[in-house]
Design goal:
The chain contains 16 helices and 19 strands. With 529 residues, it is an alpha+beta fold. The chain folds into three domains: 144 residues, no CATH class; 72 residues, Orthogonal Bundle (Arc Repressor Mutant, subunit A); 229 residues, Endonuclease, Chain A (2-Layer Sandwich), CATH 3.30.870. It is elongated and about 110 Å long.
């Protein structure tokens, strides 16, 4: 079914089920890790003959041991074992005449109607375990299915109640639901009996909340942004939703930021020679800011009016590392098409210097997946993330922050240079040379009317066109004015520097020279045996 909408005075036809992934973001909530020592009450199941014997006494109130044995057809030993079990249940006792009769506990179960579902015996068990309380909502939370990552944006703590024992009392059902599916405490009949201790160990690993942000059909405004929680099991996803933590994340993304980008969306279009994106710039005369006209762009994209008139250049909306996205597939498929018997150039990824660049669990897995492919056979390549760094000057804190954010998420491929230029909202990735590829994206602000004023959206193009790849490579080279080293160190990366210093027309000669050197080394090794 198709519906006609109107945006910016243009008639728009979009399907009612229109849905497109445009961004993926992972934020973290600070947590408190609590070590629990608790006693719980469980209802223990009974053997059938024991339950039947107890039900019999509950109905007739008194029975002799002989009558009991005759009723169930038991020999002397079997009778002795059954009576022993009945007495241990604390539901039956001997009266003064030596007969078996109900205790007050069994009478209470009969009076309360609990025997409609059979007789139960309550037992107290002790457990020592760990739980996590998020410090944004004060709720016990399940853990994400994904491995924890360092360096993701952290929301401010806004919950200060430190009576953790009371939190456990009030949220015991939630505590049970947050445990792994096979945990003994998840039994719905388990009740809290006593908290022996609730000890603060230390601040726990932050609570990771990953949202896929989709553009969806909206009957009034044409396009709206929807958020979808990922990386949690279905039952745990419901717990996160009910706690209000998703609302906290959306509030964070909706904040209006005063920092201005180091360049504008129009500057990007001029730099990248992107005449397509240039059509979708909105100038806000009041704030002086430029926004991406996202509904307009997505509409035109849907009706195929955003072509670059070159099959080797394609628009890329959203981050290239987004899991399950066509962007990620596009880049990975390019790598997989490369020969495994030829050496490749190193990929240089000049990162954008803003808080949402790489703020996704998909970032780390993308780099790993890329590098797993790039080192296959004789490719001997990798994707290297570069930032400008200053280990001693005014940008020292920013340099430390980048190392904390990306140091453990880039497989040892985080690099830096001292002099040159990086921008807050522009990223570039280039694999230069024959059969190379390039990507350039601007992290555009979107219209606050869409509801997420802090959110930026990477927008640009990916290309395998030789001339355009060479064009992007020249832009990237011009921004690096000093030696590339391992991040914030003096350990120079000679391969990358040689690649950057080489004239573009001679790039592939580097690979040939290296192959010749490798063959000669093998010959020398053979001759010296």
């Amino acid at each position: 079914m198709r519906e006609t909408l109107s945006i910016n005075n243009k008639r728009i036809e979009v399907p009612a089920d229109y849905d497109r992934l445009v961004q993926t973001i992972t934020l973290c909530a600070p947590t408190q890790k609590i070590e629990l020592d608790i006693d719980v009450i469980n209802k223990a199941s009974l053997p059938a003959i024991l339950e039947s014997a107890l039900l019999l006494i509950a109905q007739i109130e008194t029975v002799s041991p002989t009558e009991l044995a005759n009723f169930f057809g038991l020999n002397e030993h079997e009778r002795s074992v059954l009576i022993s079990d009945m007495l241990e249940s604390d539901l039956v006792k001997y009266n003064d005449d030596g007969d078996l009769t109900s205790t007050a506990k069994l009478v209470a179960q009969r009076r309360d109607g609990a025997m409609d579902e059979g007789i139960s015996i309550e037992e107290v068990k002790n457990f020592r375990t760990i739980t996590y309380i998020d410090q944004c909502t004060g709720h016990i939370q399940p853990r994400s299915e994904e491995e924890p990552q360092k360096g993701l944006p952290l929301m401010d703590r806004s919950y200060n109640n430190k009576d953790y024992s009371q939190i456990i009392v009030n949220q015991f059902d939630r505590f049970k639901a947050s445990l792994h599916h096979n945990h003994e405490l998840k039994n719905p009949k388990t009740r809290l009996y006593r908290i022996n201790s609730a000890t603060v160990i230390h601040s726990g690993l932050p609570q990771q909340v990953s949202l896929n942000i989709h553009a969806a059909h909206d009957p009034l405004n044409g396009i709206r942004l929807d958020t979808h929680l990922i990386d949690y099991k279905d039952e745990h996803r419901a717990l996160i939703q009910k706690s209000g933590l998703i609302s906290k994340v959306i509030d964070w993304l909706s904040e209006q930021r005063v920092e201005r980008p180091s360049s504008t969306l129009f500057d990007y279009c001029e730099l990248a020679n992107d005449e397509v994106i240039q059509r979708y710039i909105k100038h806000d005369k009041i704030t002086g800011r430029q926004y991406l006209k996202l509904p307009h762009l997505l509409h035109d994209r849907f009706i195929r009016k955003t072509s670059y008139n070159n099959q080797a250049i394609q628009m890329m909306i959203g981050p290239m590392y987004a899991p399950t996205s066509s962007n990620r597939d596009t880049v990975l498929q390019w790598v997989r098409r490369q020969s495994k018997i030829k050496r490749m150039h190193q990929g240089i990824w000049l990162g954008a210097d803003n808080e949402l660049f790489g703020a996704s669990l998909g970032f780390q897995s993308f780099i790993k997946e890329m590098n797993d492919e790039l080192k296959k056979g004789d490719r001997n390549s990798s994707i290297n993330l570069l930032f400008q760094a200053d280990g001693h000057g005014n940008n020292y804190h920013s340099t430390l922050q980048k190392n904390n954010t990306f140091g453990t998420r880039t497989e040892g491929k985080l690099m830096s240079f001292i002099t040159g230029k990086t921008e807050s909202h522009l990223e570039m990735m280039v694999f230069p040379g024959e059969n190379g590829c390039g990507l350039i994206q601007y992290h555009a602000q979107i219209d606050p009317k869409l509801g997420l004023g802090r959110l930026t959206l990477p927008i640009g193009y990916f290309t395998t066109d030789p001339e355009r790849v060479r064009f992007l490579w020249e832009i990237l080279r011009a921004r690096i004015h000093s030696k590339v080293t391992a991040f914030n160190s003096n350990n120079e990366d000679k391969t990358i520097n040689k690649q950057l210093e080489c004239e573009p027309s001679m790039l592939d000669r580097i690979l040939i020279d290296h192959s010749d050197q490798r063959i000669q080394a093998l010959i020398d090794k053979f001759n010296n045996k």
